[in-house]
Amino acid sequence: MYGKMLLGVHKKASNLGTLGELGVYPLQTEILMNILKFWQHILQDNSSIVYEAYQMMVKSPVQNWTTSVKNVLHHFGFDEIWDAQTIDNCSLYKIKCAILSSYENFWHAEVRKSPKMSLYADLKSGYKMEKYLTTVKKFSQRKEFTSLRISAHRLHIEEGRYNKINRQSRICRHCHLDKVEDEAHFLGECPMYMEHRSILFKHVISQVPSFNCLNIHMKCLYLLTCEDESIINHLSKYIEMGMDMRKQNL
Questions:
Q1: Which ranges of the chain have pLDDT less than 70?
Q2: Nearest-5° Cα angle at 76, 72 to 82
Q3: Which residues neighbour 242 within 8 Å (Cβ) at sequence distance 6 or greater?
Q4: Burial of 95 (0-12, 13-18, 19+ CB in 10 A)
Q5: Whole-angstrom Cα distance, residue 133 to residue 16?
Q6: Where are the alpha helices (DSSP H) in the chain?
Q7: Amino acid 164: pLDDT
Q8: How far is CA 140 from CA 6, 101, 237, in A?
Q9: Facing residues of 180 across strands?
Q10: Digit-coded pLDDT (tens) for 165-222
């Protein structure tokens, strides 16, 4: 997938997460719209040979391209447009909104169902490109930021899933807190990153004093969803330095 290359994540990274971070829709949505636009083009000139061929296909008992148009309109609740055999740009826009809304509902449901995406389900409220992608200029930092958000990282919470290790047993091997090495542990409590974390937290608290009152999980959610550019940049540096330290200590 081109989106994974753009984000710098590995091939096994979640497709749902990749699309969600970029705020882009799958190719199928564009295909459906192109079908309807072509149908609109045919209907605009009822004196053309193409229109005559179209009428023959509509009357044919055999399923064909016109059946697909009818099915698409029926699926999204626009039977009256098919019955009228006319479609203007306003109607086309309404159908587009219905198609995109339907996909977003499907996407949110799939994210909620996936155990791998449990953190991401809490992070992602709207279907849009995330601000850090345009704020963080250094590719390596942006890559690590994305990887942490969509669980495409090497923390034990994710590695243990591939190795069939019970979730509660995916303990951090870089400290003695006997805690699961998940994203919240990495960002908020593992002693190995204490020096870098103190710099990050000091900056965040200077901007948002109430941050210090949050528990570890809520701090994690706040940091990974914050749209303040200065906090995003400080966080991206922390994530990259932390992941580098972790690699060196394996």
A1: 1
A2: 55
A3: 186, 193, 196
A4: buried
A5: 17
A6: 2-7, 15-22, 27-43, 49-59, 65-75, 79-84, 89-113, 118-123, 132-135, 139-149, 156-162, 183-188, 194-207, 216-225, 229-248
A7: 85
A8: 12, 33, 10
A9: 171
A10: 998 999 999 999 999 999 999 999 999 999 999 999 999 999 999 999 999 999 999 9
Tokens of 55: 């009428």
CA 105 to chain centre: 13
State the residue for tokens 């005559």: 52
Q: Dig out the tokens for 155 from the structure.
A: 């923390």
Residue 171 pairs in a beta bridge with 180
Number of CB atoms found within 10 A of residue 121's CB: 15
Cα of 53 vs its chain's centroid, Å: 42
pLDDT for 63? 92
Question: Is the separation of the CB atoms in 231 and 207 below 8 Å?
Answer: yes
Residue 34 corresponds to which amino acid? N
Give 102-109 contacts, CB < 8 A, sequence gap 24+. 102/76, 103/25, 103/26, 103/29, 107/16, 107/19, 107/20
Cα dihedral 172→174→177→183 (10° resolution):
-50
Give the list of residues 6+ apart from residue 136 with CB closer than 8 angstroms, or none: 142, 145, 232, 233, 236
C-beta separation of 43 from 73 below 8 A: no
Q: Which residue is associated with the tokens 């966080």? A: 235
As given in the structure block, the two tokens for residue 21 are 């971070």
* Cβ contact 147:17 at 8 Å: no
